[in-house]
Amino acid sequence: MSYRRYLRRPAVSSVIGLVLLITASMLTYLVARPSPGDEPELTLGLAKPTEGQAAGASGYHYQRSSEPDRTEIIDSSGEPVAVMTDGARTAHIYGPSRTFEEPRFTDAKIETDMWVRLAPQPWRAGAEQEQWFIDWFAAARRDRSPDVLAISFEYVDGAPVKRDNQGQQYSGDASFGPPDPADPDGRQERSDFYDYLGLPWSFLDGKAVVPEPQRKLALDCSGYLRMVYGHRLGYPLRGTNTPGEGLPRRAYAMAELGPGVQLMPNSGQRARGIDRLLPGDLVFFNAQPVPNRQIDHSGIYLGIDDGGHHRFISSRSQTDGPTMGDLSGAPLLDGVGYWPDRWLTARRI
Fold it and tell me: Under DSSP, is residue 249 helix (H, G, I), strand (E, B) or coil?
């Protein structure tokens, strides 16, 4: 599913060129992932504007839109290039199309030409004229290392183990947590990224933690988001659920106090404004029987699947870890069902 609908998209290229481009650029993401050594790394600060060219021009047009306030970047031929949202570091950059799937647990597939990355600082209107953005964006458009979506799939069932140069495992099939004595079909919460890693950690807000051995290689719903955005992509993390710089620990605090932009208010009723979502947005739910504003589950929005449904990925107790699969309820935001009825709000960090 192409997200170029987010921008106006005049037809400019020939049919033959388009076919060749699509053929050359199609990538498929299954559970198996390429090794880190096969993936180019993002190098910052190398690209400079062409001599005599105005800073920020670079052949692009910048179109302002609202709900949420954002800058849509369009190239000189009229093709959409990127979406930068005011107050958020999340950058949505168009690139080669990829397909994400988890065939063991669902027939659904997500095809997207959007790559989700983190800019060095939050966006604001006019930042296209600033040198930090000019340098970063030139490199980010070429970057094909794992982004938010690709990293999200590095923790699903059967995902291969990856280790750093010191032998520390940093990705691979994640559990949700140890068995819950109070629920024979469930798993305990409170497994953060440092539990998965088995490493002690000190946070920005001064909290220091020690991992619990029984939670090794486990990630609860918010721990999973913190692994993807925080440990893997470098977004600042808090050890508490208080306001301040960084992503808080719990889902409710991310939704209410978290950085970035809330995409729709939490009224305690099913969220409205689904068309505001882009892949990589954080989505939040009340998974309790009583409808109210309480939030106790979180996930990452993936986009529109091949059945036309808005699908997300999350770490769930009943599935014992991250999945986009349909076990314990299809993870959809539209239509009717367990999760659509419990979706309350979303945030772009």
Answer: coil
Hey, what are 11's tokens? 């037809």
This prediction has a pTM of 0.85
Q: How far is CA 197 from the centre of its chain?
A: 20
- Percent of the chain's residues with pLDDT above 70: 83
In the chain, the N- to C-terminal Cα span, in Å, equals: 23
List beta partners, residue 62: 73
Rounded Cα distance between 48 and 118, Å, is 20
Strand 282-285 versus strand 321-323 pairing type: unpaired
Distance in angstroms (rounded) separating the CA atoms of residues 236 and 189: 22
* Cβ count near 24 (within 10 Å): 8
Structure tokens of 71?
């800058």
Distance CA 324, CA 331 (A): 6
Tell how far CA 234 is from the center of its chain: 13
Which stretches in the chain have pLDDT values below 50?
8-55, 57
